Amino acid sequence: MMRKPEAFIIVGLIVAVAGCQRLDYGSRPAPAPLQPTPVAPVASGQLQPLETTPNGTPLTGQPLDGTVATAPLDGQETVTGTVPTGNGAPVGRTDLLGGWTVASGGDTCKLFMTLTTWSGGYRANTRGCSNATLAGVSAWDLQGNQIKLKDGGGADVAALVSNAPEQFNGTTNGGAPISVFR
Fold first, then answer.
1. Phi/psi at 41 (nearest 5 deg)?
2. 48 backbone dihedrals φ, ψ, rounded to 5°
3. How far apart (Å, rounded) are the C-alpha atoms in residues 154 and 76?
4. Does residue 79 sit in helix, strand or coil?
5. What is the pTM of this model?
């Protein structure tokens, strides 16, 4: 006499084989090939001069002497500013994006800056900070020659300027030295 588990296995195999016999792919014709999607020709033309924003608005009155003039990302006014670096080259908002190391008051942790708008500037966050001031950084902004780090309500936490490429030093609102570097 056959046991129940063996009977179920044999019945399952018979059903599987029978199911395979019912699928007859050989008698069906292959589907017709897809037609290629029409592609419009690539447009060519002159690029806009550097004195305009991407939407064509002239940047009148903006000096072309190394200052950074950027188009607004959130419908607000155009921001113009420079941050001096160790080699004299200006730094723009996009140069500040990404991961940084921040150190202040014996604490060293990670700072991440994006261009997502946030209270008083753009979104920032810190990871691994035990210092309450550093842990509270939620935003950043480029104002003239300074980088301002801000808390969740948009209040200034620290102000920094560049001493060397990819290194910014300054003080917190409490007077403690702070350094941001890669």
1. -65, 150
2. -70, 150
3. 16
4. strand
5. 0.52
* Residue range 98-152, pLDDT digits in tens: 999 999 988 999 999 999 988 778 999 999 999 888 999 999 998 877 899 999 8
Asked if 68 and 143 touch (Cβ cutoff 8 Å), the reply is no
Nearest-angstrom CA–CA distance, 173 and 150: 10
Length of the chain: 182
Both structure tokens of 132? 């309450």
In single-letter form, the type of residue at position 177 comes to: P
One-letter-per-residue 3-state SS of the chain:
CCCHHHHHHHHHHHHHHHHHHHCCCCCCCCCCCCCCCCCCCCCCCCCCCCCECCCCCECCCCCCCCCEEECCCCCCCCEEECCCCCCCCCCCHHHHCEEEEEEECCEEEEEEEEEEEECCEEEEEEECCCCHHHHCCCEEEEECCEEEEECCCCCEEEEEEEEECCEEEEEECCCCEEEEEC
